[in-house]
Amino acid sequence: MKKYIYLLTLTATAFFITSCGSEDKKGVEDNSPAIVVKTSQVEANTNSPFLAVSGKIQAANSADLSTRMMGYVNKVHVNVGDKVRKGQLLVSINNSDLQAKRAQVNASITEATAAFNNAQKDYNRFKNLFAENSASQKEMDDMTANYEMAKARLESANQMKNEVNAQFTYSNITAPFNGTITSKNVEAGNMANPGAPLISIETPGHFEVMAMVPESEISAIKKGTTVDVLVKSINQTLKGQVAEVSTSAKNTGGQYLVKIALDKTDANILSGMFTTVQFPVERKAATAMVLIPTDAIITNGQLSGVYTVSQSNTALLRWLRLGRTFGDQVEVLSGLNGDEAYIVSAEGKLYNGAKISVQ
User: Fold this and answer.
1) Does the predicted model carry a pTM greater than 0.70?
2) Most buried residue among 18, 51, 94, 298 by CB atoms closer than 10 A?
């Protein structure tokens, strides 16, 4: 009889605990106020007035300086960011072997000059004797050949001197134009190898954009056309003109290289910045595009998304696949349809599943 009483007591206790747990769950029900948000309808553009392609800014006048000789670097005379003048010494490479070779060449020139002067005197003497029939034709031919060989040896020695002097120019790297040092790839004591870039220099203030245009659109790009260049990192649109249009895509994977000369500007642009170049040409095939403002995009690492409104009036994060940028708008390739709305602003921090109230 006691066993039944004990079981009944346990059952009652369990029911009491379960009832308390249910009451606790009801007590944590979300009663937070809804976040007030503003939404906007997706814009579907079916006829883009321009062709947009990616590009990259580079200096109009730039050079990577290297050497044709191998040797240890004695001194690097500049640092990155230094302004230099044309002809200014930038890098000195050890040239003791060239100095020894130049001394040998100078000695050869001295010897060849003495031999040439002696051969010239003998040639003139025998020339007069031959004119007076005091020397045979064989003797005159021998003197002429000796004179010509001495003259050739002297010329060869002088050309060797020119070669050594040319090699000396590669031991002292100088600036080819006025500009700014943009990179330094060598330090004192390093070994300089032929063809390896040592110093990079560019002329500041004069920039151009290199853009790649697909083969389906290249025929519409004309030299001299004014284009808009959106610099993404500073969010500014600059003006430029098409300076060159490549006629071959052999080495560029089916994309044609187009060079745009940027107009002079006070914008803080640097070489290497990525851009979007907008050409004022009609697209050959008008396709519907879904455009949303870049301010509405939520990023998480490599992912991009936007908040939308669910049927239960909660925030719903939708991941997107984005395409090209058009000014302050970006093309949505997938993840959002043309008849949907998205959240553009909120009076609070949004998260997936947050209660919202559309204003």
Assistant:
1) no
2) 51
